[in-house]
């Protein structure tokens, strides 16, 4: 197949799962074009992300004249189709948080994407996230672009399903992808029952070859690593508060960056944790692998999630996981077998789980890591999951 991936901001440091999915499709013989509305303004520390940027066509960078020209040619091609798309954009904009003018801009972007897809003989378009990328994919299909599908990750889409017109998008899509059974259940809330059969679970995947020989758990004081954007939903403030309650000798490394960094740094200083908590900022995939190797476990204190890739990567590296009992996480992390699950937002329960982790003998942590590795390799092999996605596209 010739597939167009439609994305909002790409690549981004936290979206390596999209890059892996595209690469797996290409490894399977499919031709994938990347259309992103804009480039990220975050530094791309990973050379793989920089390579993806070079392969991506940026729609807004083409300029207003190109977008208006594509819209004019769409009008001449089929005025009825364009008028139908205008009505859809107007209606969606009326219920959204960004308004109708923004949706008319999405329509101009869609005209550009639809024209490029026709020029490249694209057979299917796939968008990631149920936000504006899925809107562009829908509108492009309405004005002569390819049939489309989209992946919903959460939690953002589940926070505003009406404002994002999720039900309308699912009705128009060839199919919709959820990354967990929990995610599928949430989509079924907003889809017509007749559309449930076109909502499929396709997991995000890891590349098993990169975790071929996991490093043994290190000796010495226990080390935890947390990886993710420093934003409210990831719960790092609660994690720092829990670190202040922990009784055992634990060091925590926080990998990532974001709007909450200054608040997290202030709390670390206030609770006198500078010797026990390290912030690294964004790092590349190689550094993440190194941090997992030197850690005894991953901690994921999120308040809201889809199904975190870093949990999969930690389990593939044979590391136990301490996580919150939310969204799709319990479908992967098994309490007492592959790690610890605690209620989201419960600082005391999180601190107790971290102490239990620190007191557990290395042999128990190794057994947990081994069980987690077997589970994630069986459920989240990117080649197998992407083959399922391609089958849905072909079907």
TrEMBL record:
Residue ranges constituting the Glycosyltransferase subfamily 4-like N-terminal domain according to the UniProt record: 93-209
GO molecular function, one term: glycosyltransferase activity
Top-rank taxon: Bacteria
Organism per entry: Sulfitobacter aestuariivivens
Name of the protein: Glycosyltransferase
One family name in Pfam for this protein: Glyco_transf_4
Family matches, as InterPro entries: Glyco_trans_4-like_N, Glycosyltransferase_grp1
């Amino acid at each position: 197949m010739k597939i167009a991936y439609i994305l909002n901001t790409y690549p981004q440091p936290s979206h390596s799962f999209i890059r892996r999915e595209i690469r797996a499709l290409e490894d399977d013989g499919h031709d994938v074009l990347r259309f992103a509305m804009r480039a990220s303004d975050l530094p791309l520390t990973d050379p793989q992300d920089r390579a993806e940027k070079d392969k991506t066509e940026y729609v807004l960078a083409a300029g207003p004249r190109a977008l208006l020209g594509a819209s004019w040619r769409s009008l001449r091609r089929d005025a009825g189709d364009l008028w139908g798309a205008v009505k859809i954009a107007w209606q969606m904009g009326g219920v959204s948080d960004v308004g109708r003018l923004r949706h008319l801009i999405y329509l101009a972007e869609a005209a550009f994407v639809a024209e490029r897809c026709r020029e490249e003989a694209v057979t299917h378009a796939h968008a990631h996230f149920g936000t504006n990328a899925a809107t562009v994919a829908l509108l492009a299909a309405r004005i002569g672009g390819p049939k489309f599908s989209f992946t919903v990750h959460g939690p953002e889409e589940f926070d505003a399903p009406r404002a994002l017109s999720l039900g309308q998008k699912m009705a128009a899509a060839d199919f919709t992808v959820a990354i967990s059974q929990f995610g599928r259940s949430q989509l079924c809330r907003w889809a017509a029952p007749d559309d449930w059969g076109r909502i499929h679970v396709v997991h995000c995947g890891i590349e098993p070859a990169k975790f071929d020989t996991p490093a043994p758990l290190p000796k010495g004081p226990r080390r935890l690593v947390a990886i993710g954007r420093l934003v409210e939903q990831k719960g790092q403030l609660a994690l720092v508060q829990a670190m202040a309650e922990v009784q055992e000798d634990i060091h925590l490394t926080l990998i990532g960056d974001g709007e909450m960094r200054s608040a997290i740094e202030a709390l670390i200083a206030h609770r006198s944790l500078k010797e026990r908590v390290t912030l690294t900022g964004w790092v590349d995939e190689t550094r993440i692998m190194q941090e997992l190797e030197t850690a005894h476990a991953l901690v994921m204190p999120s308040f809201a999630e889809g199904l975190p890739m870093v949990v999969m990567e930690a389990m593939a590296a044979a590391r136990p996981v301490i996580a919150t009992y939310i969204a799709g996480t319990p479908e992967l992390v098994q309490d007492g077998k592959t790690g610890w699950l605690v209620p989201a937002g419960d600082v005391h329960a999180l601190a107790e789980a971290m102490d239990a982790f620190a007191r557990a003998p290395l042999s128990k942590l190794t057994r947990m890591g081994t069980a987690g590795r077997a589970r994630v390799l069986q459920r989240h092999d990117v080649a197998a999951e992407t083959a399922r996605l391609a089958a849905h596209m072909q079907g």
